[in-house]
Design brief:
386 residues; mainly alpha
Length: 386
């Protein structure tokens, strides 16, 4: 067996977003004389040669093809597209491996979907991809997007929950040809990627545009993120979003998305009297809940309209963040069916395309499993209700 470059082992683990401790447990290394942690350290230092069964476990755990481990050196990092985020360095580095793995996974799915569309002779270029630019007026772009989607703000707000409101918006977006995924980890809660690290990701492909909304974020923020990523696609920009909107593109996408969900006149009519930040936070909370939007989005728009100061905005966002953490901690956890959850995360457009192309023999169960993020044996059950 060819000698394995230990740098490949280290690179594969780190780009999978796993600490050496977690990887050692997942790989079930070690024995009576050597702990799993020490065994993995020895492999990554080149002191021991991995066996083929160990490489097979690594390929599965690190989500890499087996042949990757026989390369002479680690390959270059997968292109994330543009990085529109403005985050503290520790947030970028801490979850860099998991985020790279997620982006790589989404790119593979998107390429398989594009190929399936081409083989099914259903591929068509969507003219809205790359149809706008940053020099255009925010209100004009908002009107274009609303018109293309057929978005009805009243219908959005009349939905019973923020999740139902998101589903309404998602269906409209998918009808234009964009695939919308809810995805915030690499397949298990152990690999969750915090909303502080990324909120969304877009692939501005003209035939099979994709977007990912981080489902680790508050559900009330999903609709805003979906519109934000949609604007990136309309700009023809592939990349990762999140953090403080300092870059021009991020601010532009935020401005368009927020105007679609909340217009200036309504916001100006709300304009609460200058009170304590706690009182202001309570009024914004009530205002946001009645409209199925997030509290941070309302405060952002208020800052834009100069209804609150920058210091107030920062303090409000801190309070909203603390409130969300408390709400998430006290949220009742049920036991939803695995396939129901998986279908919700994948979206109807992707499920229907995969079902159709599997039935026509265009996608094999293995490739369908890659697109859906499940084992080939689970594809038929997952598609059963699609």
């Amino acid at each position: 067996m060819p000698t394995i470059n230990p740098d490949i082992l280290l690179w594969a683990r780190e780009t999978a977003g796993l600490s050496i401790e977690d990887a050692a447990v997942a790989l079930r290394l070690g024995g009576a004389r050597l702990s799993g942690l020490d065994a993995l350290k020895a492999l990554e230092r080149g002191e021991r040669e991995p066996t083929r069964p160990q490489l097979l476990k690594m390929a599965k755990t690190y989500r890499r093809p087996l042949l990757t481990f026989y390369l002479e050196k680690p390959p270059a990092r997968a292109d994330r597209g543009e990085d529109f985020r403005s985050l503290p360095p520790e947030h970028r580095q801490e979850d860099a491996g998991a985020l790279d793995a997620l982006v790589r996974d989404v790119h593979v799915r998107q390429q398989l979907v594009r190929t399936a569309l081409e083989e099914a002779e259903e591929a068509q270029a969507h003219p809205f991809v790359g149809s706008i630019n940053l020099q255009m007026r925010v209100n004009d772009v908002a009107k274009k997007v609303v018109g293309a989607l057929g978005f009805d703000r009243g219908a959005f707000r009349h939905k019973r929950t923020v999740e139902e409101a998101f589903t309404y918006l998602r269906d409209l977006i998918e009808c234009t040809g964009v695939f919308v995924l809810l995805m915030g980890n690499l397949g298990s809660h152990h690999s969750n990627i915090r909303a502080e690290v990324f909120r969304g990701f877009a692939i501005a492909d003209d035939v099979a545009p994709f977007m990912v909304v981080n489902d680790q974020d508050a559900k009330s923020a999903w609709s805003f993120t979906a519109l934000h990523e949609l604007v990136h696609i309309w700009l023809g920009q592939t990349g990762i979003s999140g953090g403080v909107p300092e870059q021009r593109a991020e601010k532009f996408c935020n401005d368009v998305a927020s105007r679609i969900l909340l217009d200036d006149a309504e916001l100006d009519a709300f304009a609460p009297d200058q009170r304590t930040v706690d009182e202001l936070a309570a009024e914004i909370d009530q205002f946001a809940r009645s409209r199925n939007v997030s509290r941070p989005m309302v405060s952002y728009r208020m800052l834009q309209r100069r209804l609150i100061s920058l210091d107030q905005w920062r303090e409000l966002n801190g309070k909203f963040r603390e409130a969300w953490v408390r709400e998430r901690a006290t949220r009742q956890k049920g036991s939803p069916d695995y396939y129901t959850v998986r279908r919700h995360r994948l979206g109807g457009a992707l499920l229907q395309l995969v079902k159709r192309t599997v039935d026509e023999g265009i996608l094999t169960p293995t490739k369908a499993g890659q697109v859906l993020g499940v084992k080939p044996l689970n594809v038929a059950t997952l598609l059963g209700a699609a």
